[in-house]
Amino acid sequence: MLITNVRPWGGEPSDVEIQDGRITAITPHAPQADRDRTVIHNGRVVADGGNLTE
């Protein structure tokens, strides 16, 4: 699963890859994310210590 436009620790917008319930990658936000995966886009999500909150 790919969650796009997340702000880890309130920082810059990023995309977060999750596999088997774990974060496997955090990369700079790419507006043209890979659509072959389940993609969740929500510009209000903030990731803090592995928790995702609005």
Automatic annotation (TrEMBL):
Organism, by scientific name, is Saccharopolyspora shandongensis
**SUPFAM superfamilies associated with the record:** Composite domain of metallo-dependent hydrolases
This chain's protein is named Uncharacterized protein
Q: Which domain of life is it from?
A: Bacteria
Tell me one GO molecular function of this protein: hydrolase activity, acting on carbon-nitrogen (but not peptide) bonds
InterPro entries noted in UniProt: Metal-dep_hydrolase_composite
